[in-house]
Amino acid sequence: MNHTNIPSYENWNNRYSQERVTAVKPQIREKLLQYGVKSLSDLELMMALIGTGTHDCPVEQLASSALQVILTRNKDTWCDELQAIKGLGPTKAAVILAAFESGTRLTSSREIKIRAARDLHPLLQPYALEKQEHFVVVSLNGAHEIMNIRVVSVGTVNRTVVHPRDVFSEAVKAGASSLVVAHNHPSGTREPSIEDYQLTERLIMSGKALGIQLIDHLIITKTGFFSFREETNIFSVEMRSQTYTAAHDSPLLARWLEEIQMKP
How far apart are the first and last CA of the chain? Predict the structure, then answer.
């Protein structure tokens, strides 16, 4: 019997490990996309982050070792200990660290009480890098905590079209008590346009009629932000009283409000 073509255990094990490395991730990805991210176990989530293993260390083993570090070690030592895992390396360690830090920040942001523009600006600053105008709505509960942040419109480099219905519809369905709106200026200027003023007035009117207070309208740039509440008198008691009266005299606004309340 010729044994020359029979692979050694080491070669067979390496090939088997590689097959497991390349097969595991698609299975996890399909499970995530079909059943949702909550369907994955902690180990599978870590495997999805790491992506692939090596010939000597399957992705399952790397994920298990990484989880041990995350669950049992001090956070200050994660960076060094993850990189010390054989087969993981600095690139995959950085992905894991970035994912956990991102999750921590986003989770903690839900507990931030939004009282002024400076409270919200750090969470919206990334939109300053967009090359098109993005109009963002931040819904708040009665404790001024963030319920959700969503983009309702994407426009051009210097304009975005926003309808009050789109701004308030989700806030109404979610039972929000108030909201903050914001948009970026890709040009870099923080000065509001005439259209920005007009839109802010319409949103104040709509919010007053719906019982959902518009707290502020921010313009986000790479170097800072503009706050309509802090830098204009558009939110003054006198102005809001006038716009509220105008709201009930406006057939257009009445139609907007009807659309919002009837929208499923």
Answer: 75
Instruction: Tell me the pLDDT of the chain (264 aa) as tens digits.
Output: 444 444 443 443 444 444 444 444 568 888 888 888 888 888 888 988 888 888 888 888 898 889 888 887 888 889 999 999 988 989 999 999 998 888 777 665 556 778 888 888 888 888 888 889 999 999 999 999 888 888 999 887 666 778 899 999 989 988 999 999 999 999 999 999 999 999 999 999 999 999 999 999 999 999 999 999 999 999 885 454 444 444 444 454 555 555 555 554
**pTM for the model:** 0.57
Q: Which residues contact 70 (CB under 8 A, 6 or more apart)?
A: 46, 78, 96, 100
For residue 162, what are the contacts with CB-CB under 8 A and spacing of at least 6?
Answer: 135, 152, 153, 183, 199
Q: DSSP readout, 31-79? A: HHHHH-GGGS-HHHHHHHHH----SSS-HHHHHHHHHHHHHHS-GGGHH
Other Cβ atoms less than 10 A from the Cβ of 79: the count is 15
